[in-house]
Each structure stands twice: as structure tokens, then as C-alpha cells.
Amino acid sequence: MPFRTTHRTARHLPRGASSGPRPAPGAAGGDPRTAGSPGAPDAPGGSGPKAAPRTPNTPPAGRRRGEGAWGWLFVSPMVLILGLFLVLPILMALWVSLLDWDGQSNPFTGQAKFVGLDNYRTLLTEDGLDRTLFATSLRNNVYYVALTVPLQTGLALVLALIVNQRLLRARGALRTTFFFPSVTSSIAVSTVFLFLFQGSGAVNTLLSWIGVKGPNWFADSRGVLSTLLGGLGIVDPDHPPGVLADHSFMGLSWYEWLSGPSVAMCTIILLAVWTTSGTFMLIFLAALQDIPRELEEAAAIEGVNRRQMLRHITLPALRPVLFLVLTLGTIATWQVFDQVYVMGQGAPGNTTLTPAFLSYSTAFDDADFGQGAAIAFILLVLILLITALQRWALRERGPRPGRNR
Amino acid sequence: MAPRTATAALVTCAALLAATGCSSSFGGDKETQQDTGAKQHLKVLIATSGDAETKAVKEAAAAYEKRSGNKVTVEAAKDMNQQLAQSFAGHRPPDVFYVNSDQFANYAKGGSLYPYGDKVKDADDFAEPLRTAFTYDGKLVCLPKDTSTLALAINTDLWKKAGLTEKDYPTSWDELRKVAGKLTGDGVTGLVTSDEYQRLGVFMKQAGGWITDAKQTKMTADSAKNAEGLGFVRSLLRSGSLKYAKQVDTSWGGEALGKGKAAMTIEGNWLTGGMKLDYPDVPYKVVPLPAGPAGKATLAFSNCWGVAAESAHRSAAVDLVKYLSSGERQLKFAEGFGVMPSRTSALAEYAKQEPDAKAWVDANAYAQGPVTVAGFDKVLSQFNTELQSLRTTDPKKILADLQRNGEQTMAKGD
Q1: Are residues A343 and A204 in the same domain?
Q2: What ipTM was assigned to the predicted interfaces of this complex?
Q3: CB distance B26–A108 less than 8 Å?
Q4: What is the pLDDT of residues B398-410, one digit of tens each?
């Protein structure tokens, strides 16, 4: 079944047609195999269509200045709102992260002791409980991100491809169904999951029908990787191999870093994938419907099959959206808080502790607001770095002249 | 274009800073002016355990209003720690509020609590371990609101089914081990309790150890006595006659007892209310905890009535607290929502009214109060986290971690 039914005529063209004069489908132009520009005007890392060179004769400077003043006047309400409710609080939090502040005085009058980078030092370099907890939360979140982001993106893409098919019956109903988990409140879903995944809950009952004895999901702090390897007899979880147990990084042994997400964390990952893939499916769906039909027709004329179509037409055209989805997914997963707050608060065995939750509990339960703010800023830097990395990895590549920067 | 952008940004930032700098959201830092009027308005913030408690406190406040002519507003907090922290930072704290023992030292250290212990003449009437817990820098800061202790609750049906009689109620660790083993099997676990030091700590205390010294200035976690106590717990865990509440799909010992999954549990006097509400037909009996190598021991818990240092009505607030913590009021609270009076005199009266609670009342004589050291919340929650895996971990390692974390936090606090 062709992707789009309008390919009828194109399919009958001989293979050699591609080397002849092209039908030149609209602005798409070029070889479909390297198509990127039509569907990707805002490609990450790219500077957009190169068709906007700076006009050499700029208007007189005076007029520009007047325009600038009016411009600032018009944007000032938004600048003020953003500044007052976003920039200023961030700067205040940055200041608090340099203090030893217990939350019971005014942090802007010198009552709280200024400690410089001590809060960051405690978290990153000094051996102690604070660093161990922070390292544990980072480890948990790395596994959470590494599993959740690819799974939710992949699932969303597959769902979008399915519901984008013209010949599919009940597309509307399916779209609604897939999108539904995203509409539900995450607290409500978390609570339902708590019941489903109890030791004697519905999931374990289902598993018992096929003869599998499910774990006590939310009380199981074993890492899945070490448990799996232990089950295969490669490592003994109770006595980890010397190299891994003897070396440590940031107060956690290599073995603890590598033991994988706990069973409890996997349940939260499952929940996250299930609830978010609907939203991302919607984004993918919008992008899929935005791919110019001419592009696909041209590809069909080339005689590509469905796999090639997906690999060389659809995915490249989806790249900016893929970047968007991956970025949104990464940021959201690094900041995971509500599911953790409802489902475990770090339990069992600190394996569901995340930096966002640790920041909260350090500030409000231990009255150490300085360190709580410091955790938040380390998290911010981390997210910025990872986003930059993604931008770089998904940048537009190709030897096209004028494009390589 | 670039310099202009920078200028604009600078001007904006300066304007914003000026705007917040001039605002009064962060008030001055002077000593709060005291209100000396006859009719004062007191605000009370409580972290309630439920409607019964809210109602009892509101009734008490209404009675005080009539007596004193002051006006009292009682509000129940949704997230006590957060609400209090915000009100302290904003210099608008409630006049009187509950202080959780976990948070007590943090607030006392930050200077948010008005130490009024010396204004209460009969402070000695309050249980000693609790007074110690709510003392900071040598001063009794606030009065314990009530008290709760731990005892052993036994499901008498399961007890009889296992062929045990009243004579078999365990009084020593050996006897506990024996009966727990006998009661285990057929979907029942001998002893079920929560995986936290607030329960398992009784065994440390019974072995003669504890987390800190009596004055809470030194860590004493890393001791052979503590290791012996946790070692006993570990041996029960390994034999399967002791399980954590989560392992049997319950959230606390009382639920396990009520559902018949546990024959025994270690819980406090709040168990009475829980059982009455959820499992009224389950017969149970409360006996004292068995004695360990160092004799009888249990743990006591409490909140205290904090008065804000920044309150403008401190003397009226202390007056209100004196009224709320009077023997007569404490007995009413006991009746209202099942806590025990923290006054020794009122406790005797309570024992007469509630003969079933004898084990809990008597436990006050040998109870250990809660740990109240600034910044210890994370130290103790890390301890609890490690206790979750006590079955597979050496108690000595867990205690060494606790010792190290505690010492670091204490050093940081100085």
C-alpha cells in the first residue's frame, strides 16, 4: 500500500525517469535523498534558508533609532513581566545558592552567611552524605532520561505514523485514545499506578496467570541490570566483583553507578512513557501532515519502497520536530518531580530520588535553602549542556556549499 | 545594536531591582513591637492528623477566647514545613503553631522560636525525655503538646490459633523470637513493622545503645550495643518471622495487624483510633515491648507548641499555650483524637480512664525521646533508607554510615 494514494501515476513511470528532466516538484528541488531544506526551514544548527542576505543599503541610522525606541516601548510589558517573574527570581535563587540560608531570615540583608561556592563544593567534591545523595539522584535520573526519552520518542513516532495513514479506519478514535493519557493529571495517574503495581495488585495478578511471579514493584530497590546479570550468573549481586566495588566516583561505587534503574524506577519510567507519548505523537502528527506531498510524489517517481521513504524522506523532513521532541523530552525528564513525590519520595533505597526532588527536600525538610538552590542550578547547567549537545548532534549536515559552518 | 541591547537590559534589571528593593515584602529585622492591648488576635497553625484533631483544637481555642477575651483563629496546614518556612522568611509567622520534632532544631537554630520554657512554672510536670527533646542551647524552648509511645500489639485470634496463651506474651528477646517463629506461616508473619528507626530503634535502645548521647551533642551510633540491637532485628528478618510492612503490601503495622497479615506489630497509641475506624472486629491486645539485654526500652514521640519569636503577641501566645497544655485540656485532646497527655499528672488520670492503654502509659517511664539536632532530617532518612536493606547488609556498616553522616552534620552546624 502506497503511503499516499496520489502516487498512482508516478508509480508507472519507468525507473530511468529520474535521470531525465525532472518534474521539479515545486520548491522542493534537488535529489529527494538529501532533501532537507523544504521541510526544515528552522533546522537546528542551521541558519534557516540562506535566501535572506543582508540588504546592503540599510535605511538611515536616525530612522532606525526611532524604530528601536518604539520597539522597546512595545515589548516593554513583556520584558517587564518576564523580568519580574522569571529573570529576577532566577537571579535571586542564584544569590541564595551562594548563602548558608535557613529560610528564616531575609537573604538579601546580610543576615544569612555568604559562603561563596561552598554549597556547590559540598555537592560535587566533598566526601559526605550530601554528595552521595546528589550522586545517587544523578544516577537515577540518568537512567530515567536514558530510558524514557528514546522510548517515548520512538513510541510517539510509531503512533503518529499509524494514525497518519489515510486508509486507516477510525483514525479519529485512535488519535483520541493515544492522546488520552496526556490529558489526565499526572498525580491521578501516579496514584492509579500505585494500586496497579502493588505486590498483590492487578499487574502481578495478570502476571501470575502466565506463571510469572512479579516483584513487589514499589518496594524493590534492586537494580534491573545487576539483577538480570545476576540471574544469568554473570555477577553475584550480593558480592559485586572487586573492580566495580573498589572504585568509586562521587561517593558511589562503580557497581552502584552501573547496577541500572531499580524495579521501582522502571515503573515510573513506564508511567512517564505512557503519559507523555500522546503529546509527542500529536507534535509528530502535525509535522507529518506538513511534509509537502510533492516531495513524496517525487520519491515515488524514483521508485522508493516504504522503508526507504521513511528513512530518506519522512525522517529527514521530521528532523526539526524530532529535535523539538527530544529537547522537550530531555528537559521534562531531568526535572521529573510529581511522579516521584507521589510514588516514592526517593524510596525504596533512594532509587527514585531525583535532583529536582532532592532540591525540594533539602530546602524544605532540612532547612538548607542554599544547597537546595545550588542543586537546582547544577541541574540547570546540566540541562543546558545536554540541550546544546543534542543541537550539535542533530545539526544539519551535508557538503552543500554555504551550509557548512 | 549590541551596546544598545546591553544598556536596555541593564536599565531593565536596575528598575526591577529597585522595584523589589523598595517593596516591603522582606520586612525589617528589628525586634518585633509587642502588642499590649487587652483584646489581641492570635493566629494558630496546626498540622492536623484529621478532622477530629482540628475540631478538638478549635473547641479548645473557643473556650480560651471566652476565658481571656482574646480572639483566636485556628488554621490547619496543608504542608506544614513549607507553610512555616514561607511565613518565617516573609516575617509573618503565625503566633502559635505545632512544631514537629524533626524540624524543631532547625527552627530553634534559626531563631524563629520564642523560648518560653522559663515562663511556665510547672514545666517539670512534662515528661522528661520530651522536655530534653525540645530543649535547645540549654533552654526549654517549647512545651510538648502530647506524647505517644511504642508497645507490642498482638492479634489475639492468631495468638490462640498458634496455641499460645496469655502466659506466653514475650518479655525477652528470646521469647519474642520464639513466639514470632511460632506465629509465622500460612500467610501470617509473626512480627510486622515499618522499616524505619522510629520502630526498629527500640531494639537499639533495649540493647543499651542509641543514636546520640543524652545531650544530643555527640554521635554514639557506631557502638557494639547498637549493632547487637540491629543484629537481632536482622536475624528475625532472615528467619522470616519479622517482615517490613511494605513487604506484606501494607503501609504500616496497624494495617498488617488489622488485615491479619501480622500476628504482632510495634506501634504507638494512635493504633487505637486506626483499628477502631478500619478494623473494628479484629481483637487485639497491647502489651509492653519485651526487654532486651539492657532492660526495658521504647521510644516516645511528640510535637510541641511553638511560639514565634517574631509574634507581636508573645505573652498572649504563651498564655494560650499554657491553657492548651493544661492537664484538663490534654485529657480532652486525649479523648478527642487518641493522644496521651504529656503531663505526668494528667497521664495518671488518663491511665484510669483508658485501662486498655496501660502498656503505652507505663512505657513513658522508660521511653527515649526523639532526636532533635539541626539538619538531621536527611541523616535520619538516609539511616531509614539503609535499614530497608538490613536483611542483606551488615548492621555495623549501616551504623558506621550513620555515625559518619551525623558527625559531619553536627560539625557543619557548629
Answers
A1: yes
A2: 0.79
A3: yes
A4: 999 999 999 998 9
